[in-house]
UniProtKB/TrEMBL annotation:
<feature type="signal peptide">
    <location>
        <begin position="1"/>
        <end position="23"/>
    </location>
</feature>
<protein>
    <recommendedName>
        <fullName>Ubiquitin 3 binding protein But2 C-terminal domain-containing protein</fullName>
    </recommendedName>
</protein>
<keyword id="KW-0732">Signal</keyword>
Length: 200
């Protein structure tokens, strides 16, 4: 059944890609993404996962100010069948950053808005980033957010092994996948803002 769904996804038609309106912020580059659907065989690891990396993303970076900090935002979404964690928000790890500003990032798995959503072959990811420098004189928290769409036949390729597992990753010609960024303001704490609470 799972393998069938997987193969079905592989043969899926290509829907039209409609990027969000471009602001003046530089898109975040998704440089690495890997999904895993386990074989379900006894004794094998039952975890499903999505791992995604955005490299060198300064959320405030604009076309006018192309200064860039190095670093990697490493997000891992892990679950057990059948509890697909749609709309659950998890924290990402910040690796090897040279940014002078401390950033916190979250990622949220979204169900693809079409006929064939599937959490490892046709899904969206919403990232949120905020500076963790707190400012008690301000009630407004500014966050940066963007949604990437990931889909077999568009920007993912992969394979299902005879033993039953399926794995998908970014097509070389689609890498990096640009994610359009918008800036929004929220009321409350940075942590609340990173969970999308009280935002405009
Ligand atoms: C993401 O980055 C981490 C940390 O640098 C690395 O271990 C991992 O292999 C990367 N994964 C992908 C899918 O690019
Ligand atoms: C805190 O907020 C004040 C008033 O908006 C601003 O002038 C100041 O630069 C902020 N400080 C930090 C560290 O963001």
């Amino acid at each position: 059944m799972q393998l069938h769904q997987c193969l079905h996804a592989l043969g899926m038609a290509l829907p039209l890609f409609t990027p969000a309106a471009l602001g003046e912020l530089v898109p975040w580059p998704v440089t690495g993404l890997e999904t895993w659907q386990p074989s379900g065989r006894p004794g094998s690891n039952p975890d499903w996962y999505i791992h995604a990396n955005i490299t060198n993303p300064d959320p405030t970076q604009s076309e006018q100010d192309p200064s860039i900090a190095e670093g990697n935002v490493y997000c891992q979404i892990v679950w057990l069948y059948p509890d697909v964690p749609y709309n659950q928000i998890s924290e990402c790890e910040i690796v090897d950053t040279t940014s002078p500003t401390p950033w916190a990032w979250t990622v949220e798995l979204l169900e693809a808005d079409d006929a064939d959503p599937y959490p490892t072959t046709n899904f969206d990811l919403r990232w949120r980033a905020a500076s963790t420098v707190s400012n008690s004189t301000e009630e407004e928290v500014r966050i940066w957010t963007g949604i990437g769409q990931f889909e077999v036949a568009k920007n993912l390729q992969g394979t299902c092994a005879a033993s039953g597992f399926c794995t998908f990753w970014l097509k070389a010609e689609s890498t990096p996948v640009p994610v359009d960024v918008t800036s929004i303001s929220c009321r409350g704490t940075v942590d609340e803002a990173l969970h999308g609470l009280n935002c405009d």
